[in-house]
Amino acid sequence: MKKFIAIYILLAAILPAAVFAQVQRSAAFHDKYQLKEVVVLSRHNIRSPLSTNGSALSKMTTHQWTNWSSAASELTLKGGVLETEMGQFFRKWTVSEGLFKENQVPSVDEVNVYANSMQRCIATAAYFSTAFMPVGGLKVNHRYTPSTMDPVFNPVLTKVSDAFKAKAMEQINALGGKAGLVGMAKSLKESYRNISRTLDYPQSEAYKELGDVKYDDTQITLVKGKEPGMKGTMKNFNSASDAFILQYYEEPDADKAAFGEKLTRDDWTSIAKVKDVYGDVLFTAPIVAANVAHPLLMYMKDELNSKNRKFTFLCGHDSNIASVNAALGVERYSLPNSIEKVTPIGSKVVYEKWIEKATGKEYVGVNLVYQSTDQLQHNAPLDLDHAPQVFPLSFKGLQKNADGLYSFEQINERFEQAVNAYDDIK
Predict the structure, then answer these.
(1) Catalytic residue numbers?
(2) Pairing of strands 362-370, 348-356
(3) Span 251-257, mean pLDDT?
C-alpha cells in the first residue's frame, strides 16, 4: 500500500495538471439539472495484437514484439487494470451526481452491461462493472460463445449493390479531397517513414514480398456480409501502427517499445495517425456508417428511451464508435493529450440524460471520455479529483443550449434519422 501511495504522489508531481482535465459542472448547473440516465458505448481496453512468430506483423520487422500477458487479440492484464480505474471513476461520478448510492445493488432493469462476444470485450466489461458496482453483482451479458462476433456489434455490410458501392466510393474519396485515396495515403508519408525506420522494414521478410511504400495501391472492398475491407500499403502499415500503439501503452520502457529508436511523442502521434485514417476510410463515409452501425444504433436508441434504465454499458470496438458517430453526424474532432486522436484504447462515448428540475424537460450531453496517453502508460489512478479526459462532442446541424446540452427530442430525432438512413440504402 505504501508503495502504491508513493507512486501516486510521484505521478501527481510529474504529470501536468492538463492531463487530469475534465468537464466541470458548476453549482448553478447542478441546481438546475439532475442526472437521470447514462448510456456508454465503449471500446475495449488494451489487447495483444497478432504478432506471434509467423504472423504478418512478425514478418514486417527484424525485431521481436513484446511478450504479451495474454493470447493474441485478448485483453491484457494492464488493460484490465486500466479498465478497473475507469469503472471506479464512473462509480464515483454517478454517486456524486445522485444517480446511485454508494454500494448500491441495482435492480435488473436499472443497469445493463452488454458486450460483444469477443474475449477482450467481455473481459473489459467485467473489469469495468466490478469496479463500477463492487457489490452490485452485475452480470456481463453477451449472446454467443466467446470469440464470436455478435451481429449487434459486428460492423458488416448487410446491403450492397452497385449503387451503394458507387456512392460509398464517392464519399470515401471525398475524405481525401481532390486527390481522393491517394491524397489520404500521401498525408501519411511521415507516419510511414516513422513506422518503416522503427520496424527496420527494408530489412524485413515482408519487404522482399511487398517492396517500398506505395501511395496509389489502396483498394477498398465492399462485400455483403463482411466488414468494409482494404488492400495495399495503408492496410499493412495500419496493422503495424495498431501493434506499436498497443506496445507503447503496455511496455513501460518507451525506447524498448520502439525497438531502441528514440521516438518523440510527436513521432508516436504520427505512427498512430495511420490507424485513425484507416478507420476513417473504412467506417466514416455516411452511407457505409449507416449500413454497418444500424443494429447498434437501434439498440442504443432503445436504451436511451428505456423507462427504468439508469445506466447502460456497451462494449465493442473502435469501428463501432467511428461508425455510430459518423452515422449520427458527430462533428470531426482531434483529441488532446492522446496519440490516438479519434478513438483511443478504452475510450467511451457517454450520453448523459439530464432532467431540468423546474420543467421536467429532458436534455442530453454527449462526451468522449478517455485516458490520456500519460494516464495509460503510468496506470494513473482515477477519481473525481484526477479524472480521465472528457471531450464534449457536437452534432452537425444541432444547437446546444447555454448549458452545453441538446434537447432529448433533438438527439432522439437524430437517432431516428440515422436508423432510417439504412432503409434508404438501395
Answers:
(1) 44, 318
(2) antiparallel
(3) 93
